[in-house]
């Protein structure tokens, strides 16, 4: 079902400072910046590698406020890995397959993700404590 | 410098149960099992995807005891993502490049990692709260 590790979502207090850190330390470059009001984040995608089934990225996430999911995560856990996202060929089919195994979906229908993707989150309590995201990325899979 | 997201290290209480969860939910299969006494873990590598510059894996980590690094992580943070590992072409050169940017290395010399790799950990406080590992995987890069 999984095509790739699509991205690792990392929560940070200061998006620009953390972009600068990843650029300086690892030479990563930003390929997309977005504000996602629905999810309450300002975010940047940094390209790590291409692959036969889509690329891999680091997604840096700065909350738009303390009452957002990422804002609450930062308050309780501090900066660090927020979620892990896997590429899938079809988001609806993947959601159905996962739900059939008994894992709960946070999103009942696909949502808009970074770089024109369709995404859905799975409940971390059902995936060994890892907030897990499925990503269908039509533009990156072609 | 970075060739790929090599693996995501996930701390768990019960390795076999978590392997079974990832197999059932996502269809992932185990390609390697090891006990690393030096790091105090029993671990399994689950294959996610191949790539032009090496594959990507999920690494499940069960501590050998409560006084190990992963045992202490579980006690304070619970199950979840423990570290993120990036593939590099040359571990020594990558360590030098990273150290030159001011990021502290936990390992002053490369250590033995899963599947005959050479690895080094970077200090999470210098990488935005993420325990970060560099991995040179000669067998996987060829």
UniProtKB/TrEMBL annotation, chains A, B:
Entry keyword annotation includes Metal-binding: yes
Keywords, ordered alphabetically: Metal-binding
Keyword Metal-binding: yes
Molecular function GO labels: metal ion binding; methylmalonyl-CoA epimerase activity
An individual GO BP term: L-methylmalonyl-CoA metabolic process
Domain of life where this protein originates: Bacteria
Record CDD domains: MMCE (cd07249)
Homology family: Belongs to the methylmalonyl-CoA epimerase family.
UniProt name for this protein: Methylmalonyl-CoA/ethylmalonyl-CoA epimerase
Residues covered by the VOC domain: 4-137
Source organism of the structure: Sinosporangium album
